[in-house]
Specification:
Length: 294
């Protein structure tokens, strides 16, 4: 029998992005990778927005419209690279706030630091199709004011690889993820078992006619993490998002400043909950995305 409950929506990777780790920017990824020698210190800060109407949340078979704002900063430093972003997510009335009629609000933050072996050792460590190797450390923190009242706290760590692609970037890591959370329905705090975790992110610049574009995204897979707040066994969770963005700024003489385009998100066994335990735990949604880079 399916249980009705609301669970915190987390994104990405920020970005995720959230869940994901972008170690280059739209501008620096193209310039640096083409020169095969990424600069040591660089930064790209941007604001973004996403909008979609086909979101689902556990415990409900209603489609939910959601507006998402993003503030993110990514860059490189002496020993590696980093990304930090914060998403502010606002749902419509079909994903309501607790004890209210308005849509729930959600704040979710993702951070990743990739410690580069090449930078730390001061020498080239890549080989063949591998440009560099390293070690990723990261976090995800979030809170939502729906009935479930999630307070997600996650840590991620594991070895990483930066693949040698002609343009843009492609990164991957394999490691572990810890998670603690809160279940406002059952009024219980949960500390999950440490789970195996895989994630990858990519960005590829290309052109459609005379218009420059980028294809970018991330994917993550997290293994079972024990029982949830309802004493049900969690399952392997899959989350992926990809977008094809037009460099609209280039048409106005300011390349790599303003991007817009479609995105697609797929989420299976949301938060580790399979469809056999709750409705709304599988998502397949298109979105419109815009970004302004400073």
């Amino acid at each position: 029998m399916k249980r009705n409950f609301n669970i915190k929506h987390r994104t990405q990777i920020a970005m995720a992005m959230a869940m994901a780790f972008c170690f280059s920017t739209l501008s620096h990824a193209q310039e640096a990778q083409e020169n095969h020698a990424p600069p040591t210190n660089w930064n790209d800060t941007f604001v973004g927005a996403r909008y979609g109407t086909d979101f689902y949340f556990p415990g409900s078979d209603h489609k939910v419209a959601q507006k998402i704002g993003t503030l993110a900063t990514v860059g490189g430093f002496k020993y590696g690279s980093y990304i930090f972003n914060v998403d502010y997510l606002v749902s419509d009335q079909y994903n309501p706030e607790a004890n209210g009629t308005k849509g729930a609000q959600d704040v979710y933050s993702v951070g990743r630091v990739d410690w580069s072996a090449g930078k730390i050792l001061g020498q080239q460590v890549g080989f063949g199709f591998v440009r560099d190797v390293g070690f990723t450390t990261g976090f995800e923190f979030g809170a939502k004011n729906d009935l479930y009242g999630s307070r997600a706290r996650m840590l991620v760590l594991g070895p990483s690889v930066n693949f040698a692609v002609p343009r843009g970037y492609w990164n991957a890591m394999a490691g572990l993820r810890t998670e603690s959370n809160h279940n406002g329905i059952a009024q219980v705090d949960i500390t999950y078992k440490t789970a195996w975790h895989l994630e990858s992110s990519w960005l590829t610049p290309f052109n459609v006619g005379s218009v420059p574009m980028v294809f970018k995204g991330f994917a993550s897979v997290t293994g079972p993490k024990g029982k949830d707040g309802f004493h049900q066994q969690t399952k392997t969770e899959v989350l992926a998002r990809a977008s094809a963005l037009f460099d609209v700024g280039a048409l106005m003489g300011s390349p790599r400043t303003f991007y817009i385009g479609p995105a697609y998100e797929y989420w299976k066994n949301m938060y580790g909950t399979p469809p056999s335990e709750a409705a709304g735990t599988k998502r397949s949604a298109f979105m419109l995305v815009g970004e302004i880079h400073f």
